Amino acid sequence: MKGSNKKLIWQIPFLVLLIVGTVLIIMQQQNMPYKTTTAPIFGTYYHITYQSDKDLQSEIEAALQQVDQSLSPFNPSSIITKMNNNEEVQADQLFKDVYRIAQQVSTITEGAFDITVAPLVNQWGFGFKEGTSPDQHMIDSLLQFVGYDKISLSSDGHLTKKDPRVMLDCSAIAKGYACDVVASVLSRHDVVNYMVEIGGEIVTKGVNEKRLPWRIGVNRPTDDPTQSSTELETILNVTDKAMATSGNYRNFYYKDGKKYAHTIDPKTGRPVQHSLLSATVLANQCAIADAYATAFMVMGIEKAQKLLEQHPELMVYFIYSDGKDDYQVWFSPTLREKIVGD
User: Fold this and answer.
1) Could you give the CA distance from residue 65 to residue 42 in angstroms, rounded to a whole number?
2) I need a surface site. Which of 125, 228, 316, 320 has the fewest CB within 10 A?
3) Which 8-state DSSP code applies to residue 44?
4) What's the CA gap between 30 and 33, in Å, rounded?
């Protein structure tokens, strides 16, 4: 009994030190400043808020430039540009990552998401090359070399095309992937509280500066080519999740009195025309959320709902038209607990 008491007495100082050390660490973390950085990238802007005693701006910028050098079709020296020009080039790990996710989502959505849709996107005037509204003959011609099954990537990073006219456009996944890349940079530096946003795609972890969960608004899909509208449909708790939204209310044009939006159906070759106005997806990776958001906009609400029955790991918030100039909302049952306001 005495031996046990002595052992307990010797343990008390260590327990005290452990408790004091834990309290000091918590206090230090709470007192650590939050940094915010904003700059243009990929034709849009990034906004990153993170808690750290280090300035990680240069590493964040370097990571984003690597993504641009790999995946931007607007960068004349990027890997994807060289592939589109049929130049001999080897894919880097970033391209391999995006290719793997893109092909996986393409398979699951039966081609609703497809990175080979570039020729059609360009021809409709929404891509990295100038184009005008094509007639049916032109669409049929372009569809001959559109299809995710027309490309393959070897383990050493060599892209093979079934037709040299196949072109790639990763714009519907690259911003989400870039968010994941920046999040990885922050995590490598042991940052536990951050929010990364690039062109509306978001990754969060931990809490914000007010020690509250990260709450992100979902915009009401009002036609807004200037992207200045801040009217919200709802607010979601996106802590420790990635979120991406796709919609046809910001990137569109009118010609001869008809609206043409940027989401192109890879099967018809035309801009989608259905009731779904906005698709917000929450997932564990922003690249995955980004790709599915686009796929669901192509599929429409009914097909998307059927697919979601087989993929409960995805949470969605759909805004659609009821055909009477009003909005309706449908969301995954698992998303209900994340809705914190409207």
Assistant:
1) 10
2) 228
3) E
4) 8
- 51, 119 in Cβ contact below 8 A? no
CA dihedral 77, 149, 199, 326 (to 10 degrees): 150
CB atoms within 10 A of CB 249: 18
Query: Within the chain, how many helices (H) and strands (E) appear?
Result: 9, 15
Q: Which helix (H) or strand (E) holds 201?
A: strand 201-205
pLDDT digit string (tens) for 128-179? 777 677 899 999 999 999 999 999 999 999 999 999 999 999 999 999 999 9
Could you tell me the two tokens for 218? 């979902």
Give me the helices (H) in 124-205, please: 136-143, 171-188
The SS3 of residue 55 is coil
290-303 in b/e form (b: 16+ CB < 10 A) is bbbbbbbbbbbbeb
Query: Quick check: 288 and 296 in contact, CB under 8 A?
Result: no
Q: Could you identify the residue written with the tokens 């995006």?
A: 98
The predicted model scores a pTM of 0.87
Residues counted in the chain: 342
Structure tokens at 299: 């599929």
